[in-house]
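Below is a filled-in request sheet from our internal design queue. Each sheet records the structural input a requester submitted and the sequence that came back. We keep these sheets so that new team members can see what a complete request looks like end to end.

REQUESTER: design group, bay 2
PRIORITY: normal
MODE: inverse folding
CHAIN LENGTH: 253
BACKBONE (tokenized):
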């Protein structure tokens, strides 16, 4: 069974994380499939929208797969993993096509970092969000701090990053974390219709609009990402992180 299912129609690719047995978590296999998908899209100049959703109705993405990454102990190992996913998110953010997250369920940790890299996000009214990285003794490492501050402001970002609180879909749309809400039964149809509305713009103009808005944010953004990677790798190698991962794995047996 493919961990990323893809439907192609007109100028739109609809991809789906298909890992229901692990709550649509992200591991190296998912990373590889996302890389392969981006390789394919980047070679096809007619693709104008990429949609990503999760399989089923419970989870969009539950973040990094704790079991898969638990064997990574050192700073270098943690950094290498984070750099790989950060590179994928950078490609999503800067590609010559619109990216849209279709949030069909719960989103945790790295799943929130994933959705932040998308140009647009539409969520089911029953969806919930939580930045759970601190509960494992690490800060976000895939660009989540930088993008979250850009999206909702520093104070609210600190509140969410430090409290582990569940964020409702209403709060998510009111704060700008996501763009739109939909009733669950109409989520896929509303997502598709929105994608069609966006698909009339040529890829070169999409690329220019995305590059222009990123440039306007802050020219020192790259330094922020680099710092985030360094601090993530530092905390990844810490005893507190390894202990919390071990505790989690014991509870999940």
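RETURNED SEQUENCE:
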């Amino acid at each position: 069974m493919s961990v990323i299912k893809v439907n192609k129609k007109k100028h739109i690719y609809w991809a789906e994380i298909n890992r229901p047995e692990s709550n649509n978590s992200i591991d190296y296999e998912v990373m590889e499939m996302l890389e392969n998908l981006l390789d394919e899209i980047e070679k096809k100049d007619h693709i104008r929208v990429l949609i990503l959703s999760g399989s089923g109705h419970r989870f969009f993405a539950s973040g990094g797969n704790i079991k898969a990454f638990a064997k990574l102990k050192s700073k270098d190992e943690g950094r290498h993993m984070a750099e790989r996913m950060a590179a994928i998110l950078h490609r999503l953010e800067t590609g010559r096509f619109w990216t849209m997250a279709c949030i069909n369920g719960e989103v945790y940790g790295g799943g929130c970092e994933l959705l932040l890299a998308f140009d647009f996000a539409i969520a089911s009214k029953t969806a919930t969000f939580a930045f759970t990285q601190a509960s494992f003794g690490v800060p976000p490492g895939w660009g989540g701090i930088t993008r979250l501050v850009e999206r909702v402001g520093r104070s609210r970002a600190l509140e969410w990053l430090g409290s582990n609180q569940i964020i409702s879909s209403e709060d998510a749309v009111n704060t700008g974390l996501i763009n739109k809400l939909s009733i669950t039964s109409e989520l896929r149809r509303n997502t598709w219709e929105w994608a069609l509305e966006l698909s009339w713009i040529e890829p070169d103009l999409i690329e220019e609009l995305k590059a222009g808005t990123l440039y306007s944010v802050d020219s020192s953004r790259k330094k922020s990402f680099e710092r985030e990677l360094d601090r993530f790798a530092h905390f990844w190698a810490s005893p507190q992180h390894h202990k919390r991962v071990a505790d989690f794995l014991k509870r999940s047996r």
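SHEET NOTES:
- The longest strand covers residues 4-9.
- The two ends are 24 Å apart (CA to CA).
FILED BY: M.R.
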